[in-house]
Amino acid sequence: MVRSLGAEELADVEWTGARYADKPTLEVRTWIDAPPERVWALVCDITLMPGLSDELQSVEWLDGAAAPAVGARFLGRSRHEAFGEWETTSHIVEYEPGLVLAWAVEDPANPSAIWRFRLEPKDGGTELSEWMQLGPGRSGLSVAIDRMPEREQKIVFVRLREFERAIASTLEKIKERAEA
């Protein structure tokens, strides 16, 4: 279990971490006792994702799309205590049925984030990973960094830890559904 650092702890930490422009990434993996086909069906149903996330509130396909395909777009509505509420348009940038689903948030050429699920048959079940990259395009995090540029590395670190906890929780919920 990853825990949040308190304000006092943050003030005492020596920061040599990533800056937003570094496009920091993280990945979390889990093994699921279910066949890849069952896990894939859950991963590809983006309408399930708000039920698996505290931050993502709703999603809807755009432009008549009803399922993932390279170039398909969807609208996501999110909420965060520190950032408020916002909407983003995501673009499917990688889609290999049964293996990979990835999307870029906002501009695919300069995304504010990239997210990727990857599945691999393993030990009679499925290894599922969720990977994400911050930046390089502007996001709500950019606004916070603009306000406090001297705290950029702390801001990035804290947001990555939030994403790490959220991804671990999402993967656990997918695991529970797939194994049920």
Measured between the Cα atoms of the first and last residue, the distance is 23 Å
The CATH topology corresponds to Alpha-D-Glucose-1,6-Bisphosphate, Chain A, domain 4
What percent of residues are in strands? Answer: 25-35%
CATH superfamily: START domain
Q: Please, how many helices?
A: 5
Number of strands: 7
User: Into how many domains do the coordinates divide?
Assistant: 1
How many strands, which pairing sense, and closed or not: the largest β-sheet?
7 strands, antiparallel
Contiguous low-pLDDT stretches (5 residues minimum) are 1-7
Overall geometric form? globular
Average pLDDT: 91
Walk me through this protein's architecture.
By secondary structure, this protein is α+β, with helices and mostly antiparallel strands. The chain has one domain (20-179): START domain (Alpha-D-Glucose-1,6-Bisphosphate, Chain A, domain 4), CATH 3.30.530.20. It has five helices and seven strands; from the N terminus they run αβααββββββαα. The protein has a seven-stranded antiparallel β-sheet with strand order 1-7-6-5-4-3-2. The radius of gyration is 17 Å and the shape is globular. Mean pLDDT is 91; it is low at 1-7. It comes from Streptomyces glomeratus. This is SRPBCC family protein. Pfam families: Polyketide_cyc2. InterPro entries: Polyketide_cyclase/dehydratase (IPR019587), START-like_dom_sf (IPR023393).
